[in-house]
Amino acid sequence: MVLKIDGKEIIPNPGQSLLDLVRELDLDSAQFADRPLAAGIAGDVFQLNYVPVRAGEMLHHTVRRAMEASGGQIRLLRYADPAGKDVYERTALFTVFLALHELYPNGSARLGCTVGLGVYVEVQDSGFSVEDLKEKIRQLVEQDIPLVRKRMPIDEAVRFLEEQGQPDKARLLKYSERDWEDVYFSHGYAGFYYGELAPSTGYLKVWDVIPAEGGFFFVYPDPNVPDRPAAFQNMPKFLSVSNEGKQWCRLLECETVADLNALTENGGIRELIRVNEALHEKRFSQIADMICDRGAKAVMLAGPSSSGKTTSANRLAVQLRVHGRKPILMSLDDYYADRDTIPPGPDGKLDLEHINTIDCELFSRQLQQLLQGQEVTLPSFNFLTGKREWTEKRLRLQDDSVIIVEGLHALNPVLLPRELDAGLVFRLYVSPLLPMSLDFHNRIPTSYLRLLRRIMRDYETRGASVQHTLAMWDSVRRGEKRWIFPYQENADVIFNSSTLYELAVLKRHIYPLLTRIGPEDGCYDAVRGILRILDFIRPADVDDEIPPTSLVREFIGGNRFYS
What we know:
- The chain has helices at about 20-25, 65-70, 80-105, 130-145, 155-165, 165-175, 235-250, 255-265, 270-295, 310-320, 360-370, 445-460, 465-485, 500-515, 525-535, 555; strands at about 5, 10, 40, 45, 55, 60-65, 75, 110-115, 120-125, 150-155, 180-185, 190, 210, 215-220, 300, 325-330, 375-380, 385-395, 400-405, 425-430, 435-440, 440-445, 495.
- It is of the alpha+beta class.
- A 5-stranded mixed beta sheet has the order 2-1-7-3-4. The chain has a 5-stranded parallel beta sheet with strand order 16-19-15-20-23. Strands 8-9-14-13 form a 4-stranded antiparallel beta sheet, sandwiched between helices.
- It is globular and about 80 Å long.
């Protein structure tokens, strides 16, 4: 069979790996940015140790099924590819935990939250040293140790991981819906990372380790200049909220998906819901206290897509009323510029995540007028016509009024008047920073939870298909990285809008939608990636326990604020 690897044709010999073929075609590179990390075949990701044509007895060689499905087409994945970046990060984590295992065999380490382009790792060992860790990682990279994958039946993998002293991974694998899982080995250490790794530790060429309280930050390559580590940006507010979430995970005994599954099976998830909702209510009350103590007249509430901004604004309004204030809800959506006045992007399409979609000058002027006690006429945006409309709705703030302005760009400083008294504005950032992990070495990305929420909300409230939501998601994520995330540390408060129970609830609602997607759909591979995590989660039929004002209701339906 003739293979075409990045456009170059080659006939493989039986038993040759993709890595052998890549080197034979001179497609490997000493430059990290150009070096292949894995391969895309028929929409799936394969390690470079994959053998396209197996050697069989009596010269009866077997072409692998994926190769037949792809017609021999193979695309090499590098760090610039999202799937290649995932492979690199998994390889990095394996190498980091291998280094920690060799340095501190009696210690323990847990993966924490991502901070910018790095990830926090908590280490519990009195002898831990960042310099020792950096030197050990350098040694492992220089030794270029092969990372060997072994496909194991689930029962065997569970027993093996228990013997390896990794009970968190073993517990989770008991919930796997597969008959087998892949375990990686190196230097007598085993790891399980829910996806492919690079062929060896030598691929970990670009990284850095930054000391932190209780552990360290591991820094990945700069996506714009992959041959150097990203500049580390300390985010103390973000990290504080993430650490607080981890503490609640421990108190509620729900640190991993296996813990959540156990609570679902024994009925403890109902109490988990009640405590989660009480924590949210208490936090909204505390934020209202801070707003009133400051004497703020405007709350700028921002957050990425599907973070629960609208419900958060409404729940905060309720708490402000407890203080005797009269909250007024406003949406930045009403300040959209007319669609036909927005210049298209380089691809000829409108970038609806761009700050230039907002009439910043109009909003800034009206906010200044309101805070000065003047009356303004509020605009309204007609999404059907793509035009701004003016109504008879007029607004003047009273002494006890507080406006809550909700929108993606609400923390962008360009929206605020230059002469504004800073004490009059309170900045609130809302995001679901899910502190629960798959296991102690594998986290669930915040963007994953938001994507599940977005799929459900689009389907429930807008009649949009899974395919439609997934087609927009990359653009949404690019906009967030450019226009929202850079301003999150400017917030006075970061509110964690995640709940520990919601993955079990969302699975019951979303799983039937996702499993309808077939191989013929363009988003099939993306859906398989979503299901990879969901397949470990037990669904929970507990909607009756979720309050009508819950943030989760914004996505599964039944939210009292919208009725």
